[in-house]
């Protein structure tokens, strides 16, 4: 199954997201406040107390996940557009994901292409958020361990960074739903990660190509426009 995922309508939604994300964060906070009030005012058994404390922690974790999946879009500071070396980002990504991968019994294989012109243009910290969201999903798709492959590649249509996993895979229907706010198949999912990633990469004029086989794994290829010779010369 192969799909190309840049859809205007989905991306427009992002603009209206802030209010809805604020709402999603307010819910767990309200719940936590309720439990803390209970703990403070009502006599409770030790078992009940422990239960409420756990619920508080779970709710706070949920709020944290929403914020971190959504972080860079909500960030107000102006974008810093620069030339980004894809091999440097490959390095960054493998370092950031290492602990999470180890924890989940997953091996990371990194392959940096030696081709020239492996660059993209955009805001580096936003691009990193997009990569981390995609990488985290790849790891979460491998519940029983597996291999995460990270590589750069010079494709016929441009420089690419590719994240592939040997995880659960997706059906064509599931691939279509990617990037839709709050679409998640995970009990603790936010359904914000791919939405955020897609909108960041779209802004960089990149494309996301997804190949997936149910039960075998998924490949996310982020392909950027080939830069012209004069552009390369301008930025060295
Ligand atoms: P979340 O990770 O919180 O569920 P995301 O927006 O990051 O939200 O991802 C949405 C859904 O897309 C996931 O719940 C999962 O079903 C699917 N998905 C994303 N990446 C992969 C992948 N590499 N393999 C399998 N499914 C994936
Ligand atoms: Mg995710």
TrEMBL record:
<dbReference type="GO" id="GO:0005524">
    <property type="term" value="F:ATP binding"/>
</dbReference>
<keyword id="KW-1003">Cell membrane</keyword>
<protein>
    <recommendedName>
        <fullName>histidine kinase</fullName>
        <ecNumber>2.7.13.3</ecNumber>
    </recommendedName>
</protein>
<dbReference type="GO" id="GO:0071555">
    <property type="term" value="P:cell wall organization"/>
</dbReference>
<keyword id="KW-0067">ATP-binding</keyword>
<feature type="domain" description="Histidine kinase">
    <location>
        <begin position="20"/>
        <end position="228"/>
    </location>
</feature>
<keyword id="KW-0597">Phosphoprotein</keyword>
<keyword id="KW-0808">Transferase</keyword>
<keyword id="KW-0547">Nucleotide-binding</keyword>
<dbReference type="GO" id="GO:0005886">
    <property type="term" value="C:plasma membrane"/>
</dbReference>
<keyword id="KW-1133">Transmembrane helix</keyword>
<keyword id="KW-0812">Transmembrane</keyword>
<dbReference type="GO" id="GO:0000155">
    <property type="term" value="F:phosphorelay sensor kinase activity"/>
</dbReference>
<keyword id="KW-0472">Membrane</keyword>
<keyword id="KW-0902">Two-component regulatory system</keyword>
<keyword id="KW-0418">Kinase</keyword>
């Amino acid at each position: 199954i192969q799909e190309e995922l840049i859809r205007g309508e989905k991306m427009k939604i992002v603009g209206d997201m802030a209010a809805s994300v604020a709402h999603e964060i307010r819910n767990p906070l309200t719940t936590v406040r309720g439990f803390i009030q209970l703990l403070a005012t009502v006599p409770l058994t030790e078992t009940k107390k422990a239960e409420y404390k756990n619920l508080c922690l779970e709710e706070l974790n949920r709020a944290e996940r929403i914020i971190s999946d959504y972080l860079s879009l909500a960030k107000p500071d102006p974008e810093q557009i620069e030339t980004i070396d894809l091999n440097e980002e490959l390095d960054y990504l493998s370092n950031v994901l290492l602990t999470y991968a180890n924890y989940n019994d997953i091996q990371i294989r990194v392959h940096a292409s030696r081709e020239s012109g492996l660059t993209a243009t955009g805001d580096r910290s936003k691009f990193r958020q997009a990569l981390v969201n995609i990488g985290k999903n790849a790891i979460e798709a491998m519940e029983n361990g597996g291999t995460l492959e990270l590589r750069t590649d010079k494709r016929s249509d441009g420089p690419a960074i590719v994240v592939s996993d040997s995880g659960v895979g997706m059906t064509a229907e599931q691939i279509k739903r990617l990037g839709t706010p709050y679409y998640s198949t995970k009990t603790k999912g936010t359904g914000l990660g791919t939405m955020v990633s897609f909108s960041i990469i779209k802004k960089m004029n990149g494309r996301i190509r997804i190949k997936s086989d149910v039960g075998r794994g998924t490949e996310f290829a982020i392909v950027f426009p080939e830069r012209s010779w004069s552009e390369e010369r301008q930025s060295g």
